[in-house]
Amino acid sequence: MIVRGLAHLGWTLRVVVADIGHATRLFWQLLLCAPSCLRRFGLVRDQMHFLGNYSLAIISVSGLFVGFVLGLQGYYTLQRYGSASALGLLVALSLVRELGPVVSALLFAGRAGTSLTAEIGLMKAGEQLSAMEMMAIDPVRRILAPRFWAGVFVMPILSAVFSAVGILGGWVVGVVMIGVDSGSFWGQMQSGVDVWRDVGNGVVKSLVFGTTVSFVALRQGFEAQPTPEGVARATTRTVVLASLSVLALDFVLTALMFTI
To answer: What local confidence, expressed as pLDDT, does residue 1 receive?
Structure first.
């Protein structure tokens, strides 16, 4: 019984180490494909349109309602301490530092990440990737790399759109509906938000999240079983792994940014 348990533990560790090794090698290949992707930027541009433009609606609507909620909750919280004029600063810092990058990444994982996994998985199930290899075309360089770098480039843009629309939603609720002074709303925001420390940290987070979500989605599709059930399981794993990775990395990055 003990020998069987140790054998099972050893087999599990072997599978985990092999999985980490395959993931590391694929990630390194995607990084090495950056020069070729920049030379053929049209492929990356098309994927940026596919991933970014089709995710813009859900990002914008979600950002607007998050801004509405922040405006309401922030006003009634700050009003207790006589600081309702700092509503703009509260909304801006909440969105730029945390909610913009994190929520955008989670929505990106649910919308674009699943699409990438399903697309690559169906290409594998249809033996299109194998056919490319038979024609001496590297599927990592031709198929995966443009999609990976498109996700990296488009994530900061979507995060910026989310934050901008959220700030506008906070202004609508705080200034138009509740009656906070518009000059105080924008003035506190302008004086309290630091471009490098606040906005820069949000951009760094969005780049890391875009890299993580894109890589998880592409790897799950690339390693999926070439069956409809395998593609479905890979799509589900993409959402779970990408979401958990984003939340874990957000804690790590926030801890590093506030201690450095």
So the answer is: 67
Tens of pLDDT, residues 97-108: 888 999 999 999
Question: Domain map of the chain by residue range?
Answer: 1-32, 33-259
Q: Are 159 and 104 in contact (CB under 8 A)?
A: yes
pTM of the complete model: 0.89
